[in-house]
Amino acid sequence: MMMQPVQGLGGARGMYPDQQYQNLQAEEHRHKQNEHRAEMGALGTAAFAAYEKHQEKVDPAHAQRHHMEVQAAEAATLGLGVYALYEHHEAHKMHKAEKHEKHHHKHDHHHRH
Hints:
InterPro entries: ABA_WDS (IPR003496). By secondary structure, the protein is mainly alpha-helical.
């Protein structure tokens, strides 16, 4: 049985279904890794914001500088949280495409002669 190149949900033109499925799995994995990295970054910046908020109170001579650090860390935390959410959404899309590709490929074998 000779397979013809096809274009699927996550694949490039000329890829075979098995390659597309593997690429979708790799993409999902990459998005999950990026999501976790963003979450860890958000945790780190949130902890730094909490530390600077405390420093703002215990070091009144430099309160303005500490307050600016708090604001910057909070902005970074928010940005990383949004990025983590984006990556979560992308990983979910890849997972759905992966399931579709697997289901489509499984049924494709029944129709070819």
